[in-house]
Amino acid sequence: MNYAETSRPSVLLVDDKPANLVALSKALENLDCNIVKVCSGQDALFECLNRKFACVLLDVKMPEMDGFETAKIIKNSKEQASFPIIFITGHSESREDIKKGYELGAIDYITKPINARAIAEKVKIYCELFRRRDAAELADQLCQVNAALKEANRKLSLKNTEILDIFYTISHELMTPVGLINTFSSALSDKLGARPDLDTKEELAYIMDSCQQLYVYITDLLDASHLEKHKVILDQKTFNCGELIEKVLVRFKAKCAAKNIALVSNLPHPNTKVKVDEGRFYQIMTNLVNNALKFTEAGGIEIGARPTRDSKFVSFYVNDTGCGISKEHLTEIFNPFYQVMNNKIGRSSGLGLGLSVVKGLVNLHGGTIFVESELGKGTSFSFTMPICIKP
Ligand SMILES: Nc1ncnc2c1ncn2[C@@H]1O[C@H](COP(=O)(O)OP(=O)(O)OP(=O)(O)O)[C@@H](O)[C@H]1O
Ligand SMILES: [Mg+2]
Fold it and tell me: Among 120, 272, 324, 370, which is disulfide-ready with 375 (CB 3.0 to 4.6 Å)?
């Protein structure tokens, strides 16, 4: 239902005689309003509970509940008190009756037999007033909702900053002990290497793996907070794209083989170079390839690079043949902590921070990240990095 329909005024006609109702509605048939007809005071009250009326045309003489009694109840109700009431009287009503009607809140009187033109003119005015009041009320409500939304937004953004500050403090504090565990477990591993009689290699490998995982989570939290506060500074140098990709291949070869996933690369022209922060570039690629591996059960992963059409950037890509992402999630996955719920396994492991950090880092290089995906077929992430034309 659109605004025009909801704001179409309604007029309530109340008369115990059906013939009078027909005559009244005939008189109003050319007006742009909904006509509601009822035959008793009780039915009129019921209708008044359900909708707003531009005006109520109320017969005075009705059995059981007469027009005065009905008007009194309408005027005593907070929601309906503003409904304009026009009494319809017969010649038998006395001056006292008319006075009583005005005291009860009537705004006008019409005497039977009704003059169709005169009544239509009157009702038309009330319909117009109703439309204006309705539009003003709506504008007022919109203003209030807008103000409330702005305030909620302001509070949310403050909360967001507070949360990121808390993340930063916690991650910062956690980094020291995790770093120490990492260093000492490596030292322990070296020492135990000299003791073949002690079979503790597997346990130690678990400790070091878990420590590495913790380290990645903490780094992501720190990076997310740093990126949000524009505190990440890049150290951009010129690198050969082929060499960058080769290094990623080496890093992921064993992991892919262990999961029986093929890993292939597509190298650009040997002289293609980009200007990137090397550490951050690997962080981007590692996140994307880790995701590809995490969400691919069979098939392969392809990584590569090619210059963009305008030759200003090089587009790096990571394609997989994994579970894919449905359309409604594609714009959300770059938001911090967003993870797609999987019907079978629920939420995947991880914090849901990887892609938000990746996007922040790509943008910081002046590049853009893109994603295309088809559910059940696979996903393709690509991002651009500034090309380096100088030899
Ligand atoms: N290659 C992909 N295939 C299918 N879904 C993906 C892929 N990459 C990302 N997603 C979806 O996007 C979500 C967000 O990815 P993101 O890397 O930010 O978080 P994560 O991998 O769940 O956790 P984290 O990276 O923090 O360890 C994932 O949870 C997953 O639902
Ligand atoms: Mg990830």
Answer: 324
Number of the ligand closest to the Cα of 369: 1
Range list of H helices, the chain = 3-6, 18-27, 41-50, 67-76, 95-103, 116-193, 201-228, 241-258, 278-294, 327-330, 354-364
With a cut of 70, say whether residue 345 has pLDDT above it.
no
d(CA 364, CA 326): 27
Q: Of 263, 355, 370, which is best to mutate to test ligand 1, by the most ligand atoms within 8 angstroms of its C-beta?
A: 355
What is the structure's pLDDT at 5? 45
Q: Is the dihedral of CA 244, 245, 248, 250 positive or negative?
A: negative
How many CB atoms are located within 10 Å of the residue 375 CB?
12
DSSP reduced 3-state for 163: helix
C-beta separation of 373 from 319 below 8 A: no
Of 271, 237, 382, 367, which is closest to residue 319 (Cα–Cα)? 382
Cα 326 from Cα 340, distance rounded (Å):
9
Q: Any residues with CB less than 8 A from the CB of 32 and at least 6 apart, and which?
A: 8, 9, 127
Predicted structure pTM score? 0.65
Q: What is the pLDDT of residues 173-219, one digit of tens each?
A: 998 999 899 889 888 888 887 777 777 778 888 888 889 888 888 99
Please tell me the distance between residue 387's alpha carbon and the centre of ligand 1 in angstroms: 27
- Residue 86: pLDDT above 60? yes
What residues line ligand 1, using a CB cutoff of 6 Å?
220, 287, 291-292, 295, 320, 322-323, 325, 333, 338-340, 348, 350-356, 379
Nearest C-alpha neighbor of 128 from the set 36, 29, 31, 47: 31
Contact (Cβ atoms closer than 8 angstroms) between residue 357 and residue 365: no
